[in-house]
Structures are given as structure tokens and as C-alpha cells.
Design goal:
heterodimer; A: about 120 residues; mainly beta; B: mainly beta; 6-stranded mixed beta sheet; 4-stranded antiparallel beta sheet
């Protein structure tokens, strides 16, 4: 089946540094990928839609300069958390439409970011 | 506006007993509905989906859900809970080609 790989699974960084998270579709091409953020014991919040070859579409309230998204190829999207602060600590999950009918999304395993 | 409401934030069942996780949806037309499961520190896994075909949808790991338009419900059930079913479950409605809205989740606890 379709697989979305996310790396790293866990990252710890110092406040003020930037962190990049990669999302890859392993056996299919994804023109569109999605980035979600999940706070403890809460549901997923869509942050942005990543479009291959064009600018990402951000949801209301998400800072595009804080969360940089690049979708340079049909199998890779990256999320860079710039100048990270402790409040950016969260679980970030990416997903892609694997084309399995009804536009079913396949999710990565997530990346847990801890900012000290 | 479309939305989903998961009626229980926590559900506890004994191993071997039935599971019922409740979800109600709001939609002005026939929606596409999904159930996803998330194990601790893992990504989400699709359990099953409803896309206006059969109203009783069978998924993986023995789960199934029934779409009831008259009740605007899409409850998830399993006849017999297993310890490995302990996880967070999300009811999801698709509101656009690629846009999904997640419910707030139901944490299932399975007691030995």
C-alpha cells in the first residue's frame, strides 16, 4: 500500500534555531501534501496545503514566515520551523493523497518536536 | 458548514466485549466519512471509509461503521475488543477535494 515517510520522528532543538521536517511519498507521486499539527490530547489541526512547484496555502492563523513549506518534487515536501520557541513544541504530521479513491489520505508517522 | 462531533472523549471496555465509538456529522449533502486510528506517537491509520456506496462499511482489524442518514451518525463498532485496540480514534469528514475536518478524538481504553 501507499506509504508516507516522515523524518525525523523526534527532534530536540534549542530555542531560536530552525528545524526541518521531511515528508516523502515512497511509492507514489503526490502533487499535494498536507501538514498538520497536533497538540497533546487534541485533534489534528491543518496548518497548510503544500503544492508541488508552487506556494503553499496556509490556514488562517498559521504564520507562513514561521512555518516554511517547500514542495520541490512530486515525492518530497519539507516543513521548516524557523526560530523555534518552546510553544512550537508539538507533534507534526504530514499526509498525502495516495489516489486510493475518495481522495483517501495516507499519513506519515509524525515528528515530535521539542524546543528547549 | 460540515463538521463531525465525537460524542465521547474517553471510552473504556473490557477485553472481549463490544466497542462502540460514536460520531455524528453535519453536512448539507452526502458526505465522505472516515475513521482513523492513532497509536501513541504514531501517525494515523485508515480504518475504513464511507463514500456513498454501502451504508455498512467494513474496515480493518474487525472494525465496521454504519452510515445512518436519518440520524446523521457514523458510529464505529467492533464485536470484541482486543488489548491492541487501545488507541485514539478520529472520525473525519472530507469537505473538499483534499480538505478534511477531524473530530476531537475518542481515546479507547481496553481493560484486561
Amino acid at each position: 500500500g501507499a506509504v508516507v515517510s516522515q523524518h525525523p520522528s523526534r527532534v530536540i532543538c534549542k530555542s531560536g534555531t530552525s528545524v526541518k521536517i521531511e515528508c516523502r511519498s515512497l511509492d507514489f507521486q503526490a502533487t499535494t501534501m498536507f501538514w498538520y499539527r497536533q497538540f497533546p490530547k487534541q485533534s489534528l489541526m491543518l496548518m497548510a496545503t503544500s503544492n508541488e512547484g508552487s506556494k503553499a496555502t496556509y490556514e488562517q492563523g498559521v504564520e507562513k514566515d514561521k512555518f516554511l513549506i517547500n514542495h520541490a518534487s512530486l515525492t518530497l515536501s519539507t516543513l521548516t520551523v524557523t526560530s523555534a520557541h518552546p510553544e512550537d513544541s508539538s507533534f507534526y504530521i504530514c499526509s498525502a493523497n495516495s489516489g486510493g479513491g475518495a481522495n483517501v489520505l495516507t499519513f506519515g508517522a509524525g515528528s515530535r518536536l521539542t524546543v528547549l | 458548514a460540515q463538521s463531525v462531533t465525537q460524542l465521547d472523549s474517553h471510552v473504556s471496555v473490557s477485553e472481549g466485549t463490544p466497542v462502540l465509538l460514536r460520531c455524528n456529522y453535519s453536512s448539507s449533502y452526502s458526505p465522505s466519512l472516515f475513521w482513523y486510528v492513532q497509536h501513541p506517537n504514531k501517525g494515523l491509520q485508515l480504518l475504513l471509509k464511507y463514500t456513498s456506496a454501502a451504508t455498512l462499511v467494513k474496515g480493518i482489524n474487525g472494525f465496521e461503521a454504519e452510515f445512518k442518514k436519518s440520524e446523521t451518525s457514523f458510529h464505529l463498532t467492533k464485536p470484541s475488543a482486543h488489548m491492541s485496540d487501545a488507541a485514539e480514534y478520529f472520525c473525519v469528514v472530507r469537505v473538499g477535494t483534499y480538505k478534511y475536518i477531524f473530530g476531537t478524538g475518542t481515546r479507547l481504553k481496553v481493560l484486561a
